[in-house]
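Case study B.
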Amino acid sequence: MNMSPEEYDKLAKKASPNSPFLKNLISAFLIGGGICALGQGFLLWYQRLGIDRDTASAWASITLVFLSILLTGLDLYDSIAKVAGAGTLVPITGFANSMSSAAIEFKSEGWVLGLGAKMFIIAGPVIVYGVSASVIYGILYYIFG
Amino acid sequence: MDLFIPLLRAFVVGGILCGIGQLLIDFTKLTPARILTGYVVTGVILGGIGVYQKLVDFAGAGASVPLLGFGNLLAKGVREAVAEQGMLGILTGGFTACAGGIAAAVVLSLLSAVLWKSKIK
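Model:
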């Protein structure tokens, strides 16, 4: 059977059971969506307790942060993240996981420059650029708003 | 049914926002830290121009839980702080809005490191 490398590539792609990117996409959608739906469940519950929407929304996020750090400590979050990819990265739980997992991992390097500093290895840039963007927006809003 | 629709909206919108992140992982060389940083900054921009709040109103946690929502919260905080405190609000708004979440994450992460040992190695 004669075929060019391109043809072989095409055939091989067709034959592979499911392209990894589609599988990854579906996993990220389902698990990420599931985390958000769980957050929505907490949000609705807190609202039902008579908390206003913005406060309930903040508590719902904090609840997810708590659960994420609990699962990180129990060594379960990373197992879910292996399947979920961005599904566990993009929600606030991924932000919390990055802090908690670094804190646990780098405790051995000391409480100050190990745990204390490395906790922000991913959260740090997020805060630096997030807050800086908000200050730029604040300046624009102050002048033009 | 009054529970099902908001949960479904949160699931679908949150799922799509995570799916976009997955496409960024698979088709670009962006690291997770860059994706998270990009999501927050994009959230500040979308929140600033008033688009993102509409998505939060529609999807609730589906929009506020992904890190874009964190950016939106920063923008909203700055807006409210400028209205209350004038120029000082430019600097106080962002941190004020996210203080609860960050403080919770910091303290709980510290606690987790006290309670658990690293499984690696």
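The longest helix of chain A spans residues 20-48. The remaining cases will be described in the next quarterly update.
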